[in-house]
Design brief:
The complex is a heterotrimer. Chain A has two domains: about 120 residues, Helix Hairpins; about 110 residues. Chain A is about 65% helix and about 0% strand. Chain A contains eight helices and no strands. By secondary structure, chain B is of the alpha+beta class. Chain B has one domain: Sufe protein. Chain: A. Chain B contains six helices and three strands; from the N terminus they run αβββααααα. The radius of gyration of chain B is 16 Å and the shape is globular. The termini of chain B are far apart. The relative contact order of chain B is 0.18. Chain C is α+β, with helices and mostly antiparallel strands. In chain C, the strands form eight sheets. In chain C, strands 1, 2, 3, 4, 11 and 12 form a six-stranded mixed beta sheet that branches. In chain C, strands 18-13-14-15-19 form a five-stranded mixed beta sheet, with helices on both faces. Chain C has a five-stranded antiparallel beta sheet with strand order 22-21-25-26-30, with no helix packed on it. Chain C has four domains: about 290 residues, Nucleotidyltransferase, domain 5 (2-Layer Sandwich), CATH 3.30.420; about 80 residues, ATPase, substrate binding domain, subdomain 4 (Actin, Chain A, domain 4, Alpha-Beta Complex); about 110 residues, Substrate Binding Domain Of DNAk, Chain A, domain 1 (Sandwich), CATH 2.60.34; about 100 residues, Substrate Binding Domain Of Dnak, Chain:A, Domain 2 (Up-down Bundle), CATH 1.20.1270.10. Classes of the chains: A mainly alpha, B alpha+beta, C alpha+beta. At the A-C interface, helix 1, helix 3 and helix 4 of A face helix 10, strand 19, strand 23 and strand 24 of C. The structure holds adenosine-5'-triphosphate, FE2/S2 (inorganic) cluster and magnesium ion. FE2/S2 (inorganic) cluster (FES) binds next to helix 2 and helix 5 of chain B.
């Protein structure tokens, strides 16, 4: 069974082709105003009765911000658009409106906030894009990094010894262990930084490919390759990050 | 629905925590990770005559993953290799009553079983195809 | 549309404010004071609130409730450590604390409602119109139950609570509006009972909260308590006096401790003086001695500050301005510690007592549709999750997520024909259920089908008030399902309704108490004024007349202690009649004086 966020994405997924990333307006749930039944073409507010319209269930986060599915994002643009859309949807501006409008404003705001949160953070943005493009993470699951697992197990065991020794007061064993873990931490942090650099490379590759693909049609195979590589870096990064966090927590 | 005592015990007192000698011929080792959260699980089986006689695990992760592996090792003991293949993460989910957000933890346990079985089988076939070498190195 | 007021419902002081074209204003009472002490007294004649109740605190502590905010949204277990300090009995019903006063029992929201009503009345008198809608502030670190309890209090007081907003965020609104600040600001709010830290980004009229943290049980009250503990111990050691078990004396010591503490913000030493039945107790306090006594409490605020910075992804040096809010930030020690942490001098130009109420008024104006250029984007302070097997909480919504926000979870069955799943909702940052706050439970109904077939999607939505709403939808049929959530530490809807009814019923009794207070105040004012007049007019009226006036003043003095406001009123008009001539004489004299001091030409012109 998929997780909540995945379920949400799967719901959104089938419209991947339907939404052109460059369209200037957001897709709304219906083409007719829920209130006065007049036609709405992507406006947030009905042209006739000025009631707020619910966002389409098929809307994805990129389209919500009228962004193409690229991984390098202009953060200022993102923030500016977030503030603009917040001014349109936030419940504060609907407190004197009727219940239906209040509910729509609440739903739209919650969606907008989730979209902003996800796109603002490069890691979440990449993970989201992968799920969006590939349906579910599992389809694109990379090779398990066996050596990394070994490393985790080994480190955890050292940490356990450390935790047992630490309360017994200072000793030469403890000191040696501390040194070892310290070195390990530096090493892991360096690795984390390297991973971030290679992720950035993948971001660039993806964006270039997307731009080319926009001209020359689909390049599914190539895209999948990049997505898979990205997924691999991301999941390896999770293991490394966990190790670093555990180290920090144990050693203060 | 009340949780059964037995099941809660898998959280509080996980069974079969530990390790076997990894390169022993009768041992299969599966080490897997969950990329969603970065948790890692090692699960090992000891096999005699195509039957799992013992199982151990080490899990560095959330409580549900620990309980899942504890339960999995209990289930593995006494099963034939073929029966072991049939253990599904949904069985674990059901037994432990895992909520949706914790499903991947049970997937981790299933993956670990598969990996351990695979490792053992690989060792077994390698041994058959290169009996002389195996004998020489032991 | 009727006006919406902003209310700061504080642990120790509450205020009400409104906004007009010139900006937000705090509404003063008849005496010009803007703060209403959050104290409620139950007299034989009904309820009294604010300053009169503060006076009542020493006379009749077991019928006077203070710091009720500490009990909002809580069970008895949450406050067991401080029970001994409170002069009244508490018990718990349905997870909610109940306060026993005489033969009556009140829940904390009912007591808060009494304070809210007082503020409502104050606003109505001042604005000369009905007030029925309000924005009420709560500490940012308040959990769902505490917010809900505050909303209930509003309802019981006859107020439609349009929004619950966080105190530091409210402060930032008032501050940002006045100072036209842009950039990253930290609001450090240490009041009487709670501590909050919020980090915000202010840009083009948007107030975006990046992170918030705090301690909903740390404030000036705790500082006072430290001083009280020392003095109580000291009184026993030196004079053999047992303060515990003597609620009147305990309250006297507490108020004196607070007075000394406040004094020491301006001075380096202060004398505590406590009247005892036979003699006095005195103790000289120095600023250093108090500082070392409360040091650990002040330092306890620094951890949350660091966590908030970390969650916001910032370092202390990136913060452009630090703003101090709340009475306890007047302590030099607090100043120093905040300055050390952020490496810059904190701002406190705005009145730290009023800035939260002012901000609430601004938010009220936004909701009313008048202020259109400002928008607050707040966050939920605590992670929200559900209980999973083994007593572990799994988070669905992380702390510091911008609200409104929602999370969906799909539930199904593992046994054929299973018809329900129990769901336990929690809030907190710890791994184990028992270390987190239980919010509510509900039973999700599922259609009796083979295992795995039912699919019910539950939506957990935190609205702009930071309050949770749960809805469910059967995915197979698309039908919405009603969810009956039972709060762990909250009043049920029925209970709240009953309390609203009660509150109307008690209103008549309360009016009586109020009328007495007003008559007494008036009597006091007349006595003071007439005595002054007698001094000034010593040579202008006969001794006999003066004697007559003195006699009737004394009668008024005696009558005002009684509890029939009509008798006081009658006496007041008698005094007015008797002093009629005196007033005329004085008026003449004043006129003459005024003329004499001017040249003739000035007057004629
Ligand atoms: N000059 C001062 N020096 C030290 N403490 C002071 C001073 N003035 C007021 N206080 C303390 O400030 C507290 C009251 O502050 P404030 O009115 O901001 O709190 P509140 O809003 O009622 O409480 P909260 O916000 O925690 O609910 C009291 O504990 C009081 O003793
Ligand atoms: S959360 Fe990682 S395995 Fe459960
Ligand atoms: Mg306050």
């Amino acid at each position: 069974m998929p997780e909540a966020s995945e379920a949400e994405i799967m719901e959104h997924q089938h419209q991947a082709q339907a939404t052109t990333a460059t369209s200037r307006e957001l897709p709304m749930a219906r083409s007719m105003c829920w209130h006065c039944q007049s036609e709405v073409t992507g406006e947030y507010l009905c042209g006739q009765c000025v009631k707020v319209q619910p966002l389409s269930r098929d809307l994805d986060y990129f389209a919500c911000f009228q962004l193409p599915r690229l991984l390098n994002i202009d953060e200022q643009y993102l923030e500016k658009t977030f503030y603009e859309l917040s001014r349109t949807f936030h419940p504060d501006f609907y407190s004197t409106k009727d219940e239906s409008e209040k509910a729509i404003s609440l739903g739209n705001s919650a969606f907008l906030n989730a979209a902003y949160r996800t796109l603002k953070d490069p890691i979440q943005r990449a993970e989201y894009l992968i799920r969006l493009e590939a349906g579910a993470v599992k389809d694109i699951r990379s090779n398990p990094p066996a050596d990394l697992f070994e490393e985790v197990l080994e480190l955890q065991e050292t940490l356990e010894t450390f935790r047992q020794l630490a309360p017994k007061g200072p000793s030469s064993d403890l000191e040696a262990l501390r040194k070892k873990l310290q070195a390990e931490r530096e090493h892991l942090e360096k690795r984390q930084a390297e991973m971030e650099t290679s992720l950035q490379h993948k971001f660039n590759e993806w964006d270039q490919l997307q731009e080319r693909a926009a001209l020359s049609g689909q390049a599914r195979e190539e895209k999948n390759t990049i997505l898979r590589e990205m997924q691999e870096i991301l999941s390896n990064r999770t293991y490394v990050r966990n190790m670093v966090n555990d180290l920090l927590e144990t050693m203060g | 629905m009340a949780y059964s005592e037995k099941v809660i015990d898998h959280y509080n007192n996980p069974r079969n925590v530990g390790s076997f000698q990894k390169d022993a011929e009768d041992v299969g080792t599966g080490i897997v990770g969950a990329p969603e959260c970065g948790d890692v699980m090692k699960l090992q089986i000891k096999v005699e005559n195509d039957t799992i006689v013992d199982a151990k695990f080490k899990t560095f992760g959330c409580g549900s993953a620990i309980a899942s592996s504890s339960l999995a090792t209990e289930w593995l003991k006494g099963k034939s290799l073929e029966e072991a293949q049939k253990i599904k993460n949904t069985d674990i989910v059901q037994e432990l009553n895992l909520p949706p957000v914790k499903i991947h933890c049970s997937v981790l346990a299933e993956d670990a079983i598969k990996a351990a079985l695979g490792d053992y089988q690989k060792k077994a076939t390698d041994k058959k195809s290169k009996p002389a070498e195996a004998a020489a190195s032991s | 549309m009727s006006r919406i007021v902003g209310i700061d419902l504080g642990t120790t002081n509450s205020l009400v404010a409104f906004m007009d074209k010139e900006g937000p204003h705090v509404i003063p009472g008849p005496d010009g004071q803007t703060k209403v002490p959050s104290i409620v007294g139950l007299t034989d004649n009904g309820l009294i609130v604010g300053d009169p109740a503060k006076a009542h605190l020493i006379r009749d502590p077991s019928h006077t409730i203070y710091s009720v905010k500490r009990f909002m949204g809580k069970g008895l277990d949450d406050v067991k450590d401080e029970l001994k300090y409170f002069p009244y009995h508490l018990h718990e019903k349905n997870g909610v604390i109940r306060i026993e006063i005489g033969d009556k029992t009140y829940s904390p929201p009912q007591v808060s409602a009494m304070i809210l009503k007082e503020l409502k009345r104050r606003a109505e008198d001042y604005l000369k119109e009905d007030v029925s809608k309000a924005v009420i502030t709560v500490p940012a670190y308040f959990n769902d139950s505490q917010r809900q309890a505050t909303k209930d209090a509003g309802l019981i007081a006859g107020l439609e609570v349009l929004r619950i907003i966080n105190e530091p965020t409210a402060a930032s609104l008032a501050y940002g509006l006045q100072k036209k600040t842009q950039g990253l600001i930290a609001i450090y709010d240490l009041g009487g009972g709670t501590f909050d830290i919020s980090i915000l980004k202010l840009k083009d009229g948007i107030f975006e909260v990046l992170a918030t943290n705090g301690d909903s049980h740390l404030g000036g009250d705790d500082f006072d308590q430290r001083l009280v503990d020392v003095m109580v111990d000291d009184m026993f050691q030196t004079q053999g006096i047992k303060v515990e078990g003597n609620p009147e004396l305990m309250q006297t010591v507490r108020l004196e401790a607070e007075r000394v503490k406040i004094r020491l913000s301006d001075e380096t030493q202060a004398q505590a003086v406590i009247q005892l039945p036979n003699g006095t107790y005195e103790k000289l306090w120095t600023r250093e001695s108090v500082e070392s006594l409360v040091m650990d409490l002040v330092e306890r605020t620094l951890g949350p500050c660091r966590n908030a910075l970390k969650d916001a992804g910032l370092t202390a040096s990136q913060i452009d301005e630090v703003v101090l809010v709340g009475g306890s930030t007047r302590m030099p020690l607090v100043w120093r510690k905040v300055e050390e942490l952020f490496g810059k001098t904190p701002h406190s130009e705005l009145n730290p007592d009023e800035v939260v109420a002012l901000g609430a008024a601004v938010q009220a104006d936004i909701l009313g549709g008048h202020t259109k250029d400002l928008l607050l984007l707040d966050v939920t302070p605590l992670s929200l999750g559900i209980e999973t097997m083994g007593g572990v909480m799994s988070a669905l919504i992380r702390r510091n997520t911008t609200i409104p926000t929602s999370a969906k979870e799909m539930f199904t069955t593992y046994v054929d024909g299973q018809t329900s799943v129990d769901i336990h909702i929690l809030q907190g940052e710890r791994e184990l259920v028992k270390d987190n706050r239980s919010l509510a439970r509900f039973q999700l109904k599922l259609p009796p089908l083979p295992a795995g077939v039912p699919r019910v999607e539950v939506n957990f939505l935190i609205d702009a008030n930071g309050i949770l709403h749960v809805t469910a939808r059967d995915i197979r049929t698309g039908e919405a399902q009603s969810v009956q959530v039972k709060p762990s530490h909250g009043l049920t809807d029925d209970e709240v309704e009953g309390m609203i009814r009660d509150s109307f019923q008690f209103a008549a009794e309360d009016i009586k108490a109020r009328q007495i207070i007003e008559a007494r105040n008036e009597a006091n004012a007349i006595i003071v004024a007439t005595e002054k007049a007698l001094v000034r007019a010593a040579n202008l009226i006969s001794d006999k007349e003066a004697e007559g006036i003195r006699r009737i003043l004394q009668q008024l003095g005696e009558v005002k202690a009684g509890d029939d406001h009509r008798v006081i009123r009658t006496k007041i008009s008698e005094v007015e009649k008797t002093t009629h001539h005196l007033a005329e004489v004085l008026m003449d004299a004043t006129l003459k004086e005024a003329l004499e001091s001017k040249k003739l030409s000035d007057v004629i012109k």
